[in-house]
Amino acid sequence: MSDDATQANSSNIEEHHHFKIFKPYGFLSQFVPETRKRKKLLAELADFPKGTMAIGRLDHDSEGLLLLTTDGMVSHQVRSKKVEKEYYVQLDGDITDDAITQLQNGVEIGIKGDKYLTLPCRVFKLASEPNLPTNGRKVRDLRHGPMSWISITISEGKNRQIRKMTAAAGFPTLRLVRVRIGNIDINGMQAGDVLPLSSPFD
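Below the sequence we write its predicted structure tokens.
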């Protein structure tokens, strides 16, 4: 192949872009608005390149790490069960050792009307409240009972899975923050921050 042809081919290779963001509470994990829904979208956080998409989702009420890319192949890789996702979860009540064991071994939740047993995962109680940015809303008053925090690391991602898991174990989720995907974390980030990545596994 001639040098001219090689140069022409290399110029046709699309350069992809990758980002990590701290999704704030109340934002949808999408760029295109839904009909009749006036919700905040990721596009409001920065001027992203054309074709940018979220890798996976965090629901409207959840916060924390979300990866964005213009490369659909990368999105498929990150969403695989080979990549861990870690969450810090504030719970209604002081979680028990028995409940933690239930979560570790797998609990039965509902997915689209069917029963599903979650895969074994890593769960432990945090000794103190984690250092996270405030989300501007008060969960509830301590006078209404104790609360606790856990770290839970899963390799799957069913719809609202963490919330369903903690509810099944008897401790409903009050606040949910994803803090890590693979080897990428949100350390030092504030809600709404957008940082470029040279690759999605920096």
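The mean pLDDT is 89.
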